[in-house]
């Protein structure tokens, strides 16, 4: 069962880029972001009610709000960058998140990070730079690809803030109600500007467009629980390899569904930061710092 849950979470994350790109043909970035949280809360709430018979959200903890702000920023910048760029572009979020978490481990939590950890972070960021560059001349890079890479970098930092909040909140809350609390606050935060924004509907309203928004919500609400349950049942080496393979699936889906060009630079950068993930997660020599994993 652990392998099934791990595969479900991995495949779910790999489809995010394609789903966001599809939804952007019907609604703008604000509604996509709101829908990801709103439907995520609905499906996660239903799951918790079925499992525990009651909901126990908490809003008094400051890290609930910090985590919600981080996750909100993650989705806002990620959705905007996917809309402007390629569907596979969100593969950049994970290596930026990894590097940001390692820096936070050393600066905020004063935890030692090994040479292996810093080397892995360097590989992750090098992979991001290679993909962001993609062989383009400087003028084109600054006007197009560079902007989307910057947006994905902001998205990765937001995701890292969310992960840090999870680490702290899990000491006093279960994962289900913790995520429910964070996503409820995130829904409120991203909904605030919607009434003041024009042109929220960008194209014809279709069944497929609505379906993509709902499925994005399912991924938001349930994929983190699937992954949490999987790591309890599957060896960490398998989690590291299979979990990070979502980036390869993301590239495959963007090519199959949108025929987006996959250059040698994209593939090279991808394998560079995947090497960083492997270096970070597979035991080698002395044990790496806890945040590195």
UniProtKB/TrEMBL annotation:
Q: Tell me which UniProt keywords the record has, alphabetically.
A: Membrane, Transmembrane, Transmembrane helix
InterPro entries per UniProt: AA-Vitamin_Transporters, EamA_dom, EmrE-like
Q: Which residue windows are transmembrane per the record?
A: 32-50, 117-136, 142-164, 176-196, 208-227, 234-256, 262-284
Cited SUPFAM superfamilies: Multidrug resistance efflux transporter EmrE
Signal peptide: which range, if any? none
Question: Please, which domain of life does this record's source organism belong to?
Answer: Bacteria
The keyword Transmembrane helix is assigned to this record: yes
A Pfam family matched by this chain, by name? Answer: EamA
Membrane association type: Multi-pass membrane protein
What is the first-listed, main subcellular location in coarse terms? membrane
Annotated compartments: Endomembrane system
Domain (EamA): give its ranges: 1-132, 150-281
As for family, the record states: Belongs to the EamA transporter family.
> What name has this protein been given in UniProt?
DMT family transporter
Top-down, what is the taxonomic lineage of the species of origin? Bacteria, Bacillati, Bacillota, Bacilli, Bacillales
């Amino acid at each position: 069962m652990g392998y099934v849950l791990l595969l479900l979470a991995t495949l779910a994350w790999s489809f995010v880029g394609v789903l966001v790109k599809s939804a952007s043909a019907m609604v703008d970035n604000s509604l996509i972001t709101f829908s990801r949280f709103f439907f995520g809360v609905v499906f996660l709430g239903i799951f918790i009610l079925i499992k525990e018979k009651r909901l126990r959200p908490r809003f008094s903890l400051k890290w609930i709000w910090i985590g919600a702000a981080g996750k909100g920023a993650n989705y806002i910048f990620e959705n905007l960058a996917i809309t402007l760029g390629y569907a596979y572009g969100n593969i950049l979020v994970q290596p930026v998140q990894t590097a940001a978490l390692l820096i936070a481990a050393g600066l905020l939590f004063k935890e030692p990070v090994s040479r292996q950890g810093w080397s892995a972070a360097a590989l992750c960021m090098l992979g991001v730079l290679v993909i962001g560059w993609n062989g383009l001349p400087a003028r084109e890079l600054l006007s197009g690809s560079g902007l989307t890479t910057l947006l994905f970098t902001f998205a990765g930092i937001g995701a890292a803030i969310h992960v840090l909040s999870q680490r702290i909140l899990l000491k006093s809350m279960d994962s289900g109600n913790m995520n429910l609390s964070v996503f409820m606050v995130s829904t409120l935060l991203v909904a605030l500007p919607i009434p003041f924004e024009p042109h929220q509907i960008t194209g014809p309203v279709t069944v497929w467009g609505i379906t993509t928004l709902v499925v994005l919500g399912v991924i938001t609400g349930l994929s983190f629980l699937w992954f949490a349950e999987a790591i309890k049942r599957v060896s960490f080496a398998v989690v590291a390899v299979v979990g990070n393979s979502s980036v390869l699936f993301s590239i495959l889906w963007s090519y199959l569904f949108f025929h987006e060009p996959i250059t040698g630079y994209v593939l090279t950068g991808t394998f560079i930061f995947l090497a960083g993930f492997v270096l970070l997660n597979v035991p080698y020599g002395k044990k790496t710092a806890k945040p590195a994993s």
